Amino acid sequence: MEFGLSEEERMIRDMAARYAEQEAARRAAELDEAETFDRQSFDGMAELGFTALPWPEEAGGAGGGFAGLALVLQELSRVSASLGAALWAHVYLAAWPLMRFGGTEAKQRFLGRLVAGSALGTGMLPGTAAGASRLRAGVTAARAEDGYLLEGRQTYVLGGAQAELFVVYAEMAGERIRPGSSRKRFSAFLIDRDCPGLAVQPVGRKLGLRSAGLAHLTFQTCRVPAGNRLGREGQGSAIARQAEAGARCGLAAVAAGIARGAADAALGYAKARSQFGKPIAKHQAVAFLLADMETAAEAARLLVNQAAWRADAGLADEGRAEMALGFAAEAALAGSIQAVQVYGGYGYMKEYPVERYMRDAKAVQMLKAFGLSPARRSTGKGSGRG
């Protein structure tokens, strides 16, 4: 048994680390304070091939797989979780459903732009759509001539403030999966930001992931061509369920990056800060905190890399992505809180990054709880309709 990265994966990781440290880190605090998305950095990532990384070369991708993408997300989130989360939403919430379920027309119009990163995409969190039959659907779709009319509102879409393409799961108006059933039917659609009837309302004053660009989407008689539907009509929940494992794995990589960033920052500060004639890293109480943070960050990394490797190998998920996300999200939040403790009073100051790590970690935990909760996964069996 051998643990380690291939030569190609090490190159991907090192390239992402250099970009994160030399480009993303410089503006992370400034953009977080201003709640402004860093499109310049996203375009830079696209030029490096990060948006194309997981997709096969025959589809215009870079062939690096989801294991390679997990490495990139960890390195980016180590310095800017908002940037990592934006790339996560672009790949997993927009490009993945289109790559897997898009028809010929939709792929010809949109896929190349998403893979190249020339258009920025995002979508509803899959868990929300998969569990909407028990919660409440925000958007409905009714058949119309040559397409569908969408009505309603989808709130708190990550990346929605700046995205140009959206994947939306909508309840088919007045329909059920079978006569007499209470379960609703859903369909998935790819919608351009310029689509008449779509209004995007940015959301400000957020706790964490402040520069990832949150927004509400409002649909008023929004006409969507039939060619923009993903999969079959009524297949929306099945598409959402299949997207969940990948989305969990990617979000786990973001969380693992936060955990690593917090651990590294705390260790660096503890080595530089002296008290009672020696670095505080040599004081037992602080040393124990640092050891706990390092252990959790390393365990999160291993769980994430394993889940991503299994996805590339085509192995059954068996809850590995869910396990990775659960552990990494807790490691990020606990580790960032411990990092604030190591910094002492300075940890509460925006001059230092650990308070941002703590806020971002809480935001990731909220995404996990309300968007990718395993309790919302449908247990129904059948053709995948509904």
UniProtKB/TrEMBL annotation:
<protein>
    <submittedName>
        <fullName>Acyl-CoA dehydrogenase</fullName>
    </submittedName>
</protein>
<keyword id="KW-0560">Oxidoreductase</keyword>
<keyword id="KW-0274">FAD</keyword>
<keyword id="KW-0175">Coiled coil</keyword>
<dbReference type="InterPro" id="IPR009075">
    <property type="entry name" value="AcylCo_DH/oxidase_C"/>
</dbReference>
<dbReference type="InterPro" id="IPR009100">
    <property type="entry name" value="AcylCoA_DH/oxidase_NM_dom_sf"/>
</dbReference>
<feature type="domain" description="Acyl-CoA dehydrogenase/oxidase C-terminal">
    <location>
        <begin position="234"/>
        <end position="366"/>
    </location>
</feature>
<dbReference type="InterPro" id="IPR036250">
    <property type="entry name" value="AcylCo_DH-like_C"/>
</dbReference>
<dbReference type="Pfam" id="PF02771">
    <property type="entry name" value="Acyl-CoA_dh_N"/>
</dbReference>
<dbReference type="Pfam" id="PF00441">
    <property type="entry name" value="Acyl-CoA_dh_1"/>
</dbReference>
<dbReference type="InterPro" id="IPR006089">
    <property type="entry name" value="Acyl-CoA_DH_CS"/>
</dbReference>
<feature type="domain" description="Acyl-CoA dehydrogenase/oxidase N-terminal">
    <location>
        <begin position="6"/>
        <end position="117"/>
    </location>
</feature>
<keyword id="KW-0285">Flavoprotein</keyword>
<dbReference type="InterPro" id="IPR013786">
    <property type="entry name" value="AcylCoA_DH/ox_N"/>
</dbReference>
<dbReference type="InterPro" id="IPR006091">
    <property type="entry name" value="Acyl-CoA_Oxase/DH_mid-dom"/>
</dbReference>
<feature type="coiled-coil region">
    <location>
        <begin position="5"/>
        <end position="32"/>
    </location>
</feature>
<feature type="domain" description="Acyl-CoA oxidase/dehydrogenase middle">
    <location>
        <begin position="133"/>
        <end position="221"/>
    </location>
</feature>
<dbReference type="Pfam" id="PF02770">
    <property type="entry name" value="Acyl-CoA_dh_M"/>
</dbReference>
<comment type="similarity">
    <text>Belongs to the acyl-CoA dehydrogenase family.</text>
</comment>
<dbReference type="InterPro" id="IPR046373">
    <property type="entry name" value="Acyl-CoA_Oxase/DH_mid-dom_sf"/>
</dbReference>
<dbReference type="InterPro" id="IPR037069">
    <property type="entry name" value="AcylCoA_DH/ox_N_sf"/>
</dbReference>
